[in-house]
Amino acid sequence: MTPPIRLAHDDDSGPLSALIAASFAEYPGCVFVEAELPELRRPATAFAAKGGMLWIVDGPDGRIAGSLGIVPVPEQNAAELAKVYVDPAFRGAGLAQALFARAIDFAEQGGFAEMTLWSDTRFTRGHRFYEKLGFMRWPGERYLGDASESWEYHFRKRLRPGP
Q1: CA-CA distance, 31 to 148, in Å (whole number)?
Q2: Which of 21, 90, 128, 130 has the most CB atoms within 10 Å of its CB?
Q3: 64-90 pLDDT tens trace
Q4: From the centroid of its chain, how far is CA 17?
Q5: Claim: this prediction has a pTM higher than 0.90
Q6: Which has the higher per-residue pLDDT, 140 or 5?
Q7: Could you tell me the sign of the dihedral formed by the alpha carbons of 42, 45, 49, 52, in that order?
């Protein structure tokens, strides 16, 4: 059974940062630099300010087992996923799918035609998961210029027929 999903609070900052730092550490060359992610200081406020939502699944001992955020991108008629992370101890248990279902509901209720996301080129496990959910990788990459020298792939998923 999937643990309960709740909306993020600003005081989730520390445990959310720990989850993301641990996820980055799984990949060579990926380093977590808190200053590069200012939205983590007040995560609920940051997502709400963009008209989005950030969901959290609490794990044991005050840790966060998983997270997924979404924000509208009206000029693209899309909703963009962000902060999609699941603690390795909870992978394969349906947690990510449950979080993703919340994002689909958000996007469909907003009338968006697509969901989009950017993912570090090194996060191959995540890419397989996104493709399993129906996302397609789009041509091109973007460079972030961060401490990890990250390049990202762009993924998109059509939600409803467009014009």
Answers
A1: 6
A2: 130
A3: 999 999 999 999 999 999 999 999 999
A4: 13
A5: yes
A6: 5
A7: positive
Single-letter amino acid, residue 37: L
- Mark 96-113 as b/e (b = at least 16 C-beta within 10 Å): bebbbeebbebbeebebb
Helix or strand holding residue 97 (H, E): helix 95-109
> How far is it, in rounded angstroms, from Cα 105 to Cα 33?
32
Model confidence at 2, in pLDDT bands (50, 70, 90)?
low
- For 27, 66, 113, 120, the CA distances from 163, given in Å and listed in that order, are 40, 35, 10, 30
Q: What element of type H or E holds 158?
A: strand 151-158
Q: Which residue has the tokens 């014009």?
A: 163
Query: How crowded is residue 62: how many other Cβ atoms within 10 Å of its Cβ?
Result: 9
Q: In residues, how long is the chain?
A: 163
- Percentages of the chain per state (helix, strand, coil), in multiples of 5: 40, 30, 30
Round the average pLDDT of the chain to a whole number and report it.
94
- The single residue listed with the structure tokens 């005050």 is 62
Amino acid of residue 68: L
